[in-house]
Design brief:
By secondary structure, the protein is of the alpha+beta class. The chain folds into two domains: 107 residues, Rossmann fold, CATH 3.40.50.10330; 133 residues, Tumour Suppressor Smad4, CATH 2.60.200. Helices cover 17% and strands 40% of the residues. The protein contains five helices and 17 strands. The strands form three sheets. It has a six-stranded antiparallel β-sheet, with no helix packed on it.
């Protein structure tokens, strides 16, 4: 049994060493020629790999050679072909972010985990939140806010006390970061089809930046976020260790 595999690795020495060992055992092809892409690193490198290969529609199988591995499988060299053949596939649609800065420039990016808005100065941000054209919160005074996918709900969203979402749920999490007013507002669950818009109030006095999976835009005036069903990321997991199981397990640790 042979497979055309593209091995990609982060710059960490342990990941590069693993890549060399796997190439020596299984060979290597370019990503555009591969049946499978194997990503070696942590979750951050996995996200970069998914972004860089999204135009290929090739499934990505991650093996943990980093510090965090929620999206990764355990590392192993000897049985990779069998693991790829038995792997379970999860399909994830990213978030599409469209933002305008204070200088009138428009920026676009995709985010698999979340799009977050963060204060960029000493004072709290003031945000107006509109859902599908209807103002739902005229003023949120906070350190920031984020919109997370189910796949990203255990990342920054969870640290900000947002809910963990089942991977098959057709919802997004809207979560406040250190909300000051309304003080007890923790966020909302929204339909996956919702269009979320943040308008920054007093942007010169209270500057805000937007971040989409580490793609950062400064001096934001407004941001629009929605799920993008036209893009599908195919992620492979060992049987019994898929995202759904990990999302459930995370809530009992």
């Amino acid at each position: 049994m042979t497979k055309r595999i593209a091995f990609l690795a982060s710059e960490a020495p342990v990941a590069q060493t693993a890549r060399a060992a796997l190439i020596g055992r299984y060979g290597d092809v370019a990503p555009q020629e591969a049946e499978f892409v194997v990503a070696l690193g942590g979750d951050g490198f996995m996200l970069r790999t998914l972004h860089s290969t999204q135009h290929l529609n090739t499934p990505v199988y991650g093996m943990n050679r980093g510090t965090i591995g929620f999206l990764m499988n355990e590392y192993g060299e000897s049985d990779l072909l069998e693991r790829l053949a038995e792997a379970e596939e999860e399909i994830i649609n990213p978030l599409s972010m469209r933002a305008m800065d204070q200088f009138g420039s428009t920026h676009e990016a995709l985010a698999i985990n979340e799009v977050s808005l963060l204060r960029a100065g000493p004072q709290a941000a003031r945000l107006k939140i509109t859902i599908d054209g209807r103002v739902r919160l005229a003023e949120l005074v906070c350190d920031g806010a984020l919109v997370a996918t189910p796949a990203g709900s255990t990342a920054y969203n969870y640290s900000a006390h947002g809910p963990i979402l089942p991977i098959g749920a057709d919802v997004l999490a809207l979560t406040a970061i250190a909300a000051f007013r309304p003080r007890r507002w923790r966020g909302a669950l929204l339909p996956k089809t919702a269009m979320v818009r943040f308008d920054v109030q007093d942007p010169e006095k209270r500057p805000v930046m937007a971040d989409a999976d580490s793609i950062s835009i400064t001096d934001i005036d407004w941001v629009e976020i929605r799920s993008d069903p036209s893009v599908s990321h195919r992620i492979l997991f060992d049987p019994g260790h898929g995202l759904e199981e990990r999302l459930i397990s995370e809530q009992f640790t």
